[in-house]
Amino acid sequence: MTQLEKLKLRLPGVEDSLLNQLLEDTEADILDYTNRNVMLPKMEAIQRELAIIYYNRLGSEGETSRSEGGISVSYEMPEHIKDRLKAYRRLKAVSIVESEE
Question: Tell me: the pLDDT tens digits for 78-90?
Fold first, then answer.
């Protein structure tokens, strides 16, 4: 079963084009966060979960947080998603140049 088919089970009635866009966006965010070029099969469940979160945020693009009636909502990658992705992160190589004395 493809990612799209699995996501359609969780979000029935949503157009394929929107679901594909959500999967593309979440893949880009996951690859950026993990410093990878390719998604690993074990990341697919995380991708679907993040796509559902992004779907639920539609209409509030551009907001970083909102507070209404004492309820505060922030729009970042959820910590539980970040925690699950940490196992797949690659370190960035940084060259250190010694300063001249």
Answer: 889 999 999 999 9
